[in-house]
Amino acid sequence: xxxxxxxxxxxxxxxxxxxxxxxxxxxxxxxxxxxxxxxxxxxxxxxxxxxxxxxxxxxxxxxxxxxxxxxxxxxxxxxxxxxxxxxxxxxxxxxxxxxxxxxxxxxxxxxxxxxxxxxxxxxxxxxxxxxxxxxxxxxxxxxxxxxxxxxxxxxxxxxxxxxxxxxxxxxxxxxxxxxxxxxxxxxxxxxxxxxxxxxxxxxxxxxxxxxxxxxxxxxxxxxxxxxxxxxxxxxxxxxxxxxxxxxxxxxxxxxxxxxxxxxxxxxxxxxxxxxxxxxxxxxxxxxxxxxxxxxxxxxxxxxxxxxxxxxxxxxxxxxxxxxxxxxxxxxxxxxxxxxxxxxxxxxxxxxxxxxxxxxxxxxxxxxxxxxxxxxxxxxxxxxxxxxxxxxxxxxxxxxxxxxxxxxxxxxxxxxxxxxxxxxxxxxxxxxxxxxxxxxxxxxxxxxxxxxxxxxxxxxxxxxxxxxxxxxxxxxxxxxxxxxxxxxxxxxxxxxxxxxxxxxxxxxxxxxxxxxxxxxxxxxxxxxxxxxxxxxxxxxxxxxxxxxxxxxxxxxxxxxxxxxxxxxxxxxxxxxxxxxxxxxxxxxxxxxxxxxxxxxxxxxxxxxxxxxxxxxxxxxxxxxxxxxxxxxxxxxxxxxxxxxxxxxxxxxxxxxxxxxxxxxxxxx
DNA sequence: CTAGGGTTAG
Length: 667
Description:
Blueprint: H1 30-38, H2 45-58, H3 64-74, H4 82-91, H5 97-109, H6 113-125, H7 135-145, H8 148-160, H9 167-179, H10 183-191, H11 198-210, H12 214-223, H13 229-241, H14 245-254, H15 260-272, H16 276-288, H17 295-308, H18 311-323, H19 330-342, H20 346-355, H21 361-373, H22 377-389, H23 396-408, H24 412-424, H25 432-444, H26 448-457, H27 464-477, H28 480-493, H29 498-510, H30 514-526, E1 535-540, E2 543-548, H31 557-573, H32 589-597, H33 600-611, E3 618-622, H34 628-640, E4 645-648, E5 653-657, E6 660-661
Helix pairs in contact: 1-3, 2-3, 3-4, 3-5, 4-5, 5-6, 6-7, 7-8, 7-9, 9-10, 9-11, 10-11, 11-12, 11-13, 12-13, 13-14, 13-15, 14-15, 15-16, 15-17, 16-17, 17-18, 17-19, 19-20, 19-21, 20-21, 21-22, 21-23, 22-23, 23-24, 23-25, 24-25, 25-26, 25-27, 26-27, 27-28, 27-29, 28-29, 29-30, 31-33
The structure holds one DNA strand.
């Protein structure tokens, strides 16, 4: 190793920076400096700077081992100083393979995959011979940047250097090929010379599943000479991603030992597939097995809770977070705000929101969206202004929330002004979704003509959602002709969406055009479209109960139906009359009334009245929009039984209290 | 020579 000489110095140092050799620093050994770099310098940038100076003063910078370690420390993503790491690397004269490897890996860890590839080219040009440490990060870089040509070339280099036996390289290569959709090349690597171990097999299993080749994955999984927990987990998450949740569950059940990844794979699979109730059941099972959930699982479970209205479960998680003093970061906090807002507890949502320190735009969006769902337009707009006072830039989603708020309370002028300001003030081009909100706003307010005009002034062709909003307005205001016109377009645009058929036949039914109702029904049958069954969920004591129309699967069905009859006796005394125009088919009036009586929402309310203490609020989550009849019946129930009833439908909330609803019958 | 969290979740 060379001692300090001025000729060997990094070129940015002037000779006068270098003190004479008499300092004690020069006596520091290589070992001491390395020790310093590998301990304190990993956490303290100040120490690192000091160490850097020391290496320069003592001449140890010329030692590749020291220089490489120095680059590695500066490349620590936690310091956010990768630019300087590259600078330090530049000062290294004739870097050896060790230093090259470190800097290439550093690029990857600092989200600069293309830089990794270009540095590799420099390395090759500099005639530094790569070793087995060089390639895994390069394959990864190609995977991230989807650089197929580069990937193939790098693979060729691996072969040329005789490194294709290495397991680390193999698994990175397999992963790369699979990400390109080239499972055959991936498999060739797996079966090639050298040791393929469990991790390589697991990577291949994962690759097959990511490419949708379930059969190949199954076969490999079956015939692998050895398996570890990762093999099972790869199959489970892969099945879940392919939408094969039952298969995933089957494997999950067969496992004898499960880790956190197994649990979160299956829970997430359920959530992604929309099986929120099942996700929560598995989460509870996980608790019983004493697995300590960490933040990621908790955030996704909170999303499931929010979707089914499992307030108690969500609250439990909130307590768990506090009790374990987990950091309330933006993701977790936003999930809680969303949970409370979606469960009808704006007060709690607000409390969490206020206390949060790390708010991000999407946190504000969740709160604004929550207020919008509850029809609290003024508050939503107020928060929108506050957000700007705090110098936060609203994004597209923010405007969806604000415009929705306007739509839900009929604030036409405000909504139009906001749409206008998007482009003129915030420089955000309104997208289809924003126009959809405003079409909805105008349509609900009965301004059908204006809504149509807005659609034709849009810079893009209206999609099904926009037309759906217009058609919804036609239903509310009884515009049969326009509704029919839009409906026909919509049925061709989205022939598989049962909701569109329901809406059209609803428009006809309202106008008494039963022949046309029948036609729509026949069309659905011909096309094999099934109506989405309405269902209502209610959370009682932490357990979510789900009811369908005229459901008879609940263990307490007898009591529930008895209760329902009693409820209607009392409602009739209060002057209730069923809104039979809600029923789509031309059947006798009495039959219509029975159909209405067993709507899932009413079953859930009856169950709620039966199984909760008098005076407590009842919370219901509907998968569809509330119907007119359920709306007026629920208003009356809230008065007669003196209960607050909070119903969430597909797009908004209804707070029923003392015979009134928070939506002021505008929905 | 020194260095790899090489697979599976979010």
